[in-house]
Amino acid sequence: MERHASALALVVGSGPDLPVHCLRPHAASKAADWFVRRFPGDVLYAVKANPHPAIIDAVYAAGVRWFDVASLPEIELIAGRCPGATLAFMHPVKARSAIARAYFDFGVRIFAVDSLDELSKLVKETGGARDLHIITRLAVSSDYAQHKLSGKFGAAGPEAVMVLREARAIARELGVSFHVGSQCMRPEAWRVAMQSVSEIIRVAGVTVDIVDVGGGFPAAYPGLTPPPLDAYIEEIKASFEEMPVLENADLWCEPGRALCAEAGSHIARVELRKGDALYLNDGGYGALFDAAHDGLVFPAKLLREDAVHRPLAPFRLFGPTCDSIDAMEGPFLLPADVNEGDYIEFGLTGAYGAALATRFNGFGDYIEAELADAPMLTMYGGAAGAANQSQSVIALHDAVQEY
Ligand SMILES: Cc1ncc(COP(=O)(O)O)c(C=O)c1O
């Protein structure tokens, strides 16, 4: 992979014809190191957020040994790259063949379920195994999250109680898990979720060995400045102590976005300008999926050597495909004279960026490059320390806006 000091150095040097997927493995290592040190339990990296080998290696090098995998290809990837890793197959709906291969060929013992039918698939396809760690995914509110995850998975009410009781009868260890939704802006979301999970455990009357508080930990985007990550850890710690689980129960989390968002950025070129609309060579079917489909605003930086201190203006963006939903409302603040041929770097695209890119309309080829500079915004605020994370995020955001 090419290496450059910054995105600006890259475009000045080569004027790339394709969009560029920039990787900052050092940022993934820093984030993973923070979680390993501060989270009072085991940290499972949610591979789906960014399965690039350079990111997996960076997270592993920082000490993450547990991985939340959702498919056989993710299992193969981690098993092949990360010696000694523990794999947790956390997709609540799995192909029978995937269950069997995970258990027999890859030694996976941790499986998530959210229904009695999935539980019976698990029993059958593992040959009635008695060494399973069964994690029951429970439905919780997504009210505080930017990206809701409450519509698809998670057992609720009497079914949740039945799944917990049946799983307890089979499992070596029984866990509960939930996901408060991605990019969760409020630490209290975990308190609310852990209280509602506690209620279900009480009704089920089961002994619980593992509490998995899922992902949802935020990154800092323009207009979305979360509280410091320490506030999330404190809320989880305090809520865990109140839960009706074994005194020595294990606590897990499954961060995806928070470990890799800062580790990626994307460079796109302006192919045409029409008023306040910029037509780019990357977009909603590419690495900027979340900007088109989730309304996320990535920090944007014009890559021109003289771009500093120019007046900014708001822009809408369009991706390269012929579909009109390949549009990003933003607004994205860029120097007012941005025009055809300019390159723009979008920061914080490391989570669910390249991982979601398609080849629709013949687009989807990228150059890959590793960059040495710092991410545009960060939750891991260097010397300022955790207590000052919010301030450092805001300061960095203001710096990006200033030009
Ligand atoms: C089961 C599970 N765990 C963890 C994650 C990671 O979530 P996030 O990237 O919000 O931390 C996801 C994301 O969809 C998920 O489905």
User: What is the CATH superfamily label of the largest domain?
Assistant: Alanine racemase
Ions, cofactors and other ligands present here are: pyridoxal-5'-phosphate
Helix content: 25-40%
Major beta sheet summary: 9 strands, mixed
- Oligomeric composition of the shown chains: single chain
Structure classification = alpha/beta
Say how many strands there are.
Answer: 19
Account of the 3D structure:
- With 403 residues, this protein is α/β, with parallel strands linked by helices.
- The protein folds into 2 domains: 158 residues, Lyase, Ornithine Decarboxylase, Chain A, domain 1, CATH 2.40.37.10; 235 residues, Alanine racemase (TIM Barrel, Alpha-Beta Barrel), CATH 3.20.20.
- It has 12 helices and 19 strands.
- Strands 1, 2, 13, 14, 15, 16, 17, 18 and 19 form a 9-stranded mixed β-sheet that branches. It has an 8-stranded parallel barrel with strand order 3-4-5-6-7-9-11-12, surrounded by 4 helices.
- α2 runs parallel beside α3 and α7 packs across α8.
- The longest helix has 17 residues.
- It is elongated.
- The C terminus is likely disordered.
- The structure holds pyridoxal-5'-phosphate.
- Pyridoxal-5'-phosphate binds next to α10.
